[in-house]
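Q: Convert this sequence to structure tokens.
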Amino acid sequence: MSRTKQSKRRDANPLAYYETPGGCVDALYRELPQLHKATVDPCAGTGSLLRGVQRAGGSIIGVELDPERAALAAVYGSTCYVGDGLDALVQMPQGQDVIQNPPFHLSADFCQLALKHHASLAQFISFTSLLAARTCPWGDPENRPPIILGLTPRPFADATSYAWAVWPRGWRDIPRDNKQSLWIFTVWREPRTKHRSS
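A:
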């Protein structure tokens, strides 16, 4: 995509918000059941990741820059504060388990702060970002995600594939002489909604 098209899309959606399908979170915890349940989402949007962690049995809070989206997350039963997620990653108590789907243009910033200050990270990310050294913090082999969970089918209508880049608790101590990531691919589906009987 050209820079012109990117800037037009950014103008139409200045916070670069795209809701993560809930089934993608379900797939993360289904395939990696040993993963600590996330305790914070610093770019929570309307709470899709928050609800996914709750479905998996976790307790989580969110931070969202947009007050209307934060209010929607609360309507759906999630705790979500209005604030800047980048600031929150630095200011909140250290050692959290972070799950996030940050705006594309801030993906590396969110990732770097989460890895620096917290115990684990699961980041929803496009393959484009995953493989572009200039937009990610794992150009340094020490920061490469130990696990990459590829998702099929594509979550959005565009031609981009997505994955979870996962740094589990203790990732800094994992002996990885060749610094390779474990790739897993899985099929995800939207969670079923409960219908009330009339």
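The chain has one domain: 19-187.
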